[in-house]
Amino acid sequence: MSNQCFEMELQLHTEKSKRSCSTSDTERDLQDYISEIERVKTIHFNNTLALHRMQMWHAIGEQLKQNDPEADTLKALSERCMALCSNIKQLQQESRILQDQITEIQKKRLEMKRLTHEKMKEMEKIMSKEEHADTERYKAVLEKGQANLEKYRKITAMTQNVFKGILLACKINWLDDPKLRELAMTLEDSPISE
Amino acid sequence: MAYPQNTSDSERSSLSDQSVSSRSFNRSLRVAEKKRRKDTAEDPFFLALKYFSDVEAGTPVTGNDELERNLVLVEKVAHSKGLSPEAISIMLEFAMSLRMGNSPCVRVLKCLIPASLVPQDAIVRGVVWLCVGKIPIATQVLFIKWVLTIFDLVDAKDQLRAIYGFIFSFITEENLCPFICHLLYLLTRKENVRVFRVRKLLELQSKLGRQPFLIHLLSLYKVFCPELVTLSIPSRMKSGFRNHNSTWKSVLTGVQKRNGFHIPSSVAFTIKDKTSSRKRKHCHLELPALTSVANKEAQTEQFSSKKVVPLVQLHSFSQLLENLHCIELPAQMGSLLGSTLALHYLDCVQDESALLRLNFWLGYAFHEEFLFCGDGGTTQNSEEALQFLNKLLSAQHFLQEGFSSSESFLYKFLKVWDGSLLCPQILALLSNIPVVPSSQIGTILFEPLMQLFLTSSLFFKCGLMECLNNMLLKWLTWHSVYALEDDLDISLNSHTSINMTLSGFKDSVMELVHFVGRLASVGLQLEGCHALLLSFILDFYETVCDTFQKYGLPLVIVPPPGVFYPALFATDPVSVDRLAYIMYRYKVNLMSAKSQEKLTKQAFHISRQTFCEFNQSLVVMVNCLWNSKMFNPGMAVQLGDELLLKSNVPQYWASFDLIHHPAFMSYAVDFHQKCWPERQDMDLSSIKHSKPWSWYLEYLFTQGYEGLKHFFQTNISQQMTAGDGQSNTQQK
């Protein structure tokens, strides 16, 4: 790493002409350098950790070997730690089993969901096929009927609109006339469902 | 019908004797008399009302003392206790009919404070008078403003909805337009959204510009019928409808307080007043109660044979099943999240429009609440927000997938989040994200998460680790159910049509695992190998090590050195044991993968590099723990000899074996005391002899260290003697 930095410095100093570098290249290089830095940092950290722990626990081990009160407190502490660790281990076992069970159940539910969707799709296919089978014979009639329905729906909507327009344009109080009132109150309803 | 204008005590009896009177008038007189006998104070008010209901058109205003007197009386009553529904009807009719011109009309409108409810009948009448068109514009505006103010107090709305078309026609009047839009917003249902109305609104928009009131109404139309409104509504809508009720507001609240009667407001939006802080009249996050669109029973439509059942009327799962094909969804899509039946429905039936509407509602709620709070918004509403998120989470948990609007919200929110607001809920929402394509996952997910992770507390780091672990679990579960054959398109979400190939999925998982590896390494370095963080990280790797065996995904990724070594050198035995378990599972997975490859020749090819990395770690671990050969050349942890000598640790090569390891030293000491209680000076290396060694191992395994047990059983050959351990490593 340091060699690379040295080389880069040299390059910068001795370079007479400016070299154009594209952003994407530099970004890629940046990523590489970042991972390189992280890798070296990790190695350094691990080394330091190993060394530190080794020294520390050697000292603790030496302390434990003696029979003075300090060693006794250390021993008491380590007893407590061991008991706690056993507890933790047991709880972790249980939670692992439970987690496995939960994952199994979730898998089963998801499987159920997938099957439900498949079945719904099949049902829809079958239903549409059935409809098709029946309507094949009456296809022409049905189409004509639907076209008629559409036509009348449009006529209704237009009539409603026109009537509304007339009422508004006349500027009358249509509430006073019961027949008009009844009619006007239904102008919003669409009798034929979409 | 003209009746004598002034009544006095003397004429009371004469009135009752009148022959030319309808029965109702007699009855009302009798009632009035009864009332009068009880409470004489009401009498002038009742008479005033009678005056207003009976006065003839064209009666002069100026100099009319009678009018003045009665009007003042009505105003007094209105401002003190508010007007009863009948009084409101009478006064409104009087005003809007313009029987005495415009100025009394305005005065009356300004004092129309209801005491309890407002009959919708009166409002319909008022609107019809608007149709007649004799009222000046300013008064029309005043009337509509009044309707908007007391909207929540109207007893029923079906008649108002019936005249929706008439109300809509006023939208072309420029002065009225904003208020009419607001009123329509409050009244609109799905049936009212028609193509010609959408066209009209768009026309208006081109004339008046993108006014907020038009956009609001259009967005509501879009919620009901997304297919009819194709224009894109900007999701940031800062201003609601303008606050218009100032004329009546203070008096109204005063009256309501005095009456001790308050109906909470429903759907009015208000924007921030310039002086006071934002008034939250509308709880955007309150999941509305499940109601039906129309307030009627399920009925057959007159001309069709299709029976539609509103969802609110179904109360059991069997009812839901019976009516599955003719369910009518409620107007407020947010209410679906609170009802389990509705969620069942969403789960089974792939209803595109329902999901579209629900996502639209969710997106809007998220935006209003979290991305446009303004100052003080978060503190005021964190309780509400918490409830909302919890309900949303339970809905997602039930459906076992997330909503696309919550996903897009999260990507935006992560960039501005501080990591502490509603942390558990946001992390839980995050874990529900479906698989993200590997090309985008870096920018939209990893970058903001990296920033949050590196600058956060230990607990947030642990929380994020857990969240990413859950995310991975969900992805793997989804894959194991939905990927039936190799290389088939896996649908990511039961509702979207985005598919992903198996290799694409593997790429995303790999990206995730590598990202977590990086986060873990850096996190451990930052937090000094904190045991809690290490535990969450090892949780994650417990999931990763079994991807092949448990979830059928042909992928093996070994832990990076930044995670492996801190776990190996951990000071607590639990972590070391878990690491041993993880390595054991890795070996099982690798071996089964290899055997499968030989058997079926499937395209599951583990790269040589994976094997090398794994072997290296395995050798290190065995050497370290069993063979007491620490700090060998070729290990990743290499310290120079001089440095090791300087450390003053004798036999440094044995400093991490099962006896001297920081995690196990106390066990060694304990064992030593139990094994040789009579010995005074402790010599831990004496455990290394063959018999004590096997006893020591037994002792360790009985303490619950199953991971170590499995690890050593699979990796050490039968001899099981210290220093002689051969490790069976997997060579390719």
TrEMBL record, chain A:
Swiss-Prot/TrEMBL keywords: Centromere, Chromosome, Coiled coil, Kinetochore, Nucleus
One CC-aspect GO term: nucleus
GO molecular function, a single term: kinetochore binding
Source organism superkingdom: Eukaryota
Domain Centromere protein H C-terminal: 1-188
Coiled-coil intervals: 74-125
Record-linked InterPro entries: CENP-H, CENP-H_C
Intracellular or extracellular location(s): Chromosome, Centromere, Kinetochore; Nucleus
Single Gene Ontology BP annotation: chromosome segregation
Family listed: Belongs to the CENP-H/MCM16 family.
PANTHER family in the record: CENTROMERE PROTEIN H
Protein name: Centromere protein H isoform X2
UniProtKB/TrEMBL annotation, chain B:
Superkingdom field: Eukaryota
GO biological process, one term: mitotic sister chromatid segregation
GO CC entries: inner kinetochore; nucleus
Ranges where the record places region Disordered: 1-26
Biased composition (Low complexity): 15-24
Pfam family, one: CENP-I
Protein's name in the database: Centromere protein I
Organism in which the protein naturally occurs: Parambassis ranga (Indian glassy fish)
